[in-house]
Amino acid sequence: MNRTLLSLIALSTSALGAAEDVLRFTNGDQLHGEYKGIGEDQTVLWTRADLAAQLSLKSKNIRHIVLQGAAPQKDPNLFSYITLINGDQIPGRVINFDDKTLELESHAVGKISLPTTAVAGINPNPFGGKLMYVGPFSPDGWEVLNPQEIKVIEEVDPFAGGEEKKEEPKVEKKEEKKKEEPSWKHAGSSWYHVKGTQPLIRKDCMGESSRLRFRISWRNRLNVNVALHADFMQPPEKKKEEGDNNKKAGIVRAQVFGFNGMSNQANSFGNSLVLNIYQTYFSLSRHGYDANGQPMSQRLVHTQSGVQLPNSGDATIEIRSDRNKGLLMIFINDQYAAQWEDLPRLKNDEEEKDKESTDLPLGNGFGIQCTGTSDPLRLSDVVISEWNGIKDSAYSMSHEKRDIVLLGNGTDRYSGEVTGIKNNTVTFKNAYSELQIPLSEVSEIVFAKSAKPETKEPAEGTITARFYPTGKISGVPLTSQRNTLQLNHPAAAQLNVDLSTAISLEFNDDNPFLETLDEEPNQPLVPEE
Questions:
Q1: Per DSSP, what are the bridge partners of residue 336?
Q2: pLDDT at residue 355 is higher than 50
Q3: Is 87 helix (H, G, I), strand (E, B) or coil?
Q4: Is 42 helix (H, G, I), strand (E, B) or coil?
Q5: E-only strand ranges, 323-386
Q6: pLDDT digits over 194-221, tens only?
Q7: Distance (Å, rounded) from C-alpha 428 to C-alpha 414?
Q8: How confident is the model at residue 342 (pLDDT cuts 50, 70, 90)?
Q9: Where does the chain hold its CATH 2.30.30.100 domain(s)?
Q10: Residue 513's closest CA among 235, 216, 298?
Q11: How far apart are CA 379 and CA 277, in angstroms?
Q12: Average pLDDT over residues 364-384
């Protein structure tokens, strides 16, 4: 197959309409069609309606495959999963656990047994509340806010220059609208910041008590704004002052996406909380408009740990907020980082909101904005759910020699030794007592670090299957059809993976972590004939 034909196949997808699967090459090209499996020498088999022959593509040239628009063929019947020491998260329900073996019943891999030493944690109720969003497996529901057309009504002073002048008609001046590339682009299951300061937003995704978790990768020092509980309200029109007959009030309506100053933050996110995340500290401010339509800002005081982030790196950030209690907490890589308490501006007081002096209420949106116009950043693994009120993460309380059991009531946490799980009951003991806890009441279990062997580097040719709403299974592929994948797994020998709840297959997606920004689109890839 020649390069011209490949270029037409990879880049001219509009003629085909919506395709089920999307394959992305390491050079940035995309190929729509249908994934048919993995053949000999780990070649990916692919078909298209406009091609008579099946394609055989080298997996080393493939970044990832998004299956059926990241929509699983069937919904999983539960969200629980186990975490392995290699980072895998296998969805399923633990049916038996002792000092040697864990038995798991999974919609993804069936009934399997794993050595206990390979298990880092068990997550029976991982979200702690209603699941609102998992992604971004597609750009649906996301927006990149573009600067709007600036409209200015010219001000006229009839007494300018000491002479009375006739009032000129209002003249609208329109600034020429320039078409610019958006600051963010979606690829695979991630959003990438390319340039500029335009915010990436998602509306109506946060509740009164929310848990927002996402992974970011960055270069050139981390410096981003994260908007929480935003309503993205447009700037109100300026009111004409009573008794002022000499000046016509001007109306300035424009989106301003700078990151300094209260009016700019209000213009970007409306009424919101804006969290500034830097390498060595965090700050939180309330931005928006008061009841008179005037922009306002207030810096909120907090307590903070000594978290420091590298110049370039990767981190999982979790933000927990309870608007009724005025509480907001941040965790970085599951370690406590900062919190704000008794925040009056976080609460929406029904009795006070109609008073003129009260700030307008917050909304339910989320946004992220890079303050460095050319700083690369990747946003992925976004999970938004209700927060069950648990202030401490079990991971933030992990111990070298003790297992940690965190209950879902938001209050109780135990350290000691988990001796077994059977009949949906956890048997737990410490120096003072022995307990039997229903598995349905457990949020998560984190096992002692010292009992786990060191993780090894993934074998060459390893691929990862990702599942909805959470879960990932990695290994070296042995064979695969459209809906099944056989893997050589480091902990479970051979696994037969059911892809009906899978949303993507990743071949070379995590190394380097900003791979999409390093792609060379001018280097076409030619599949084997």
A1: 331
A2: no
A3: coil
A4: helix
A5: 327-332, 335-340, 365-370, 377-386
A6: 888 889 999 988 888 888 999 998 887 8
A7: 9
A8: confident
A9: 99-126+390-451
A10: 216
A11: 14
A12: 87
Residue intervals of the chain classified under CATH 2.60.120.560 are 132-239+246-386
Tokens 């700083």 belong to which residue? 375
Backbone angles phi, psi at 318, to 5 degrees: -125, 130
Token pair of 333, please?
């890589």
Three-state DSSP state, 81: strand
Question: Rounded distance, CA 269 to CA 363, Å?
Answer: 10
Q: How many residues does the chain have?
A: 529
Q: Give SS3 for 35.
A: strand
> Per residue, what are the HEC states of 408-427?
CCCCCEEEEEEEEEECCEEE
Hey, what amino acid is at 331?
F
For residue 15, which phi and psi values (nearest 5 degrees)?
A: -70, -20
Nearest to 38 by CA among 50, 56, 21: 56
Largest Cα–Cα separation, the chain? 96
User: Residues 384-431: pLDDT tens digits?
Assistant: 988 877 776 666 666 778 888 888 776 677 888 888 999 999 998 887
Spatial separation of the C-alpha atoms in residues 60 and 81, rounded to whole Å: 30
User: What is the rounded distance in angstroms from the CA atom of residue 462 to the CA atom of residue 465?
Assistant: 10
434's CB contacts (< 8 A; 6+ apart) are 427, 428
Task: Tell me if residue 69 falls in helix, strand or coil.
Answer: helix
What is the CATH T-level fold of the domain 99-126+390-451, as seen in this structure?
SH3 type barrels. (2.30.30)
The answer to whether 55 and 526 have CB atoms below 8 angstroms apart is no
Q: What percent of the chain has pLDDT over 90?
A: 11
Give the gyration radius of the chain's Cα atoms. 27
Topology of domain 132-239+246-386 in CATH is: Jelly Rolls (2.60.120)
Q: For residue 111, what pLDDT is reported?
A: 92
| Torsion sign (Cα): 408, 413, 414, 418 | positive
SS (H, E, C) 435-486: EEEEHHHEEEEECCHHHCCCCCCCCCCCEEEEECCCCEEEEEEEEECCCEEE
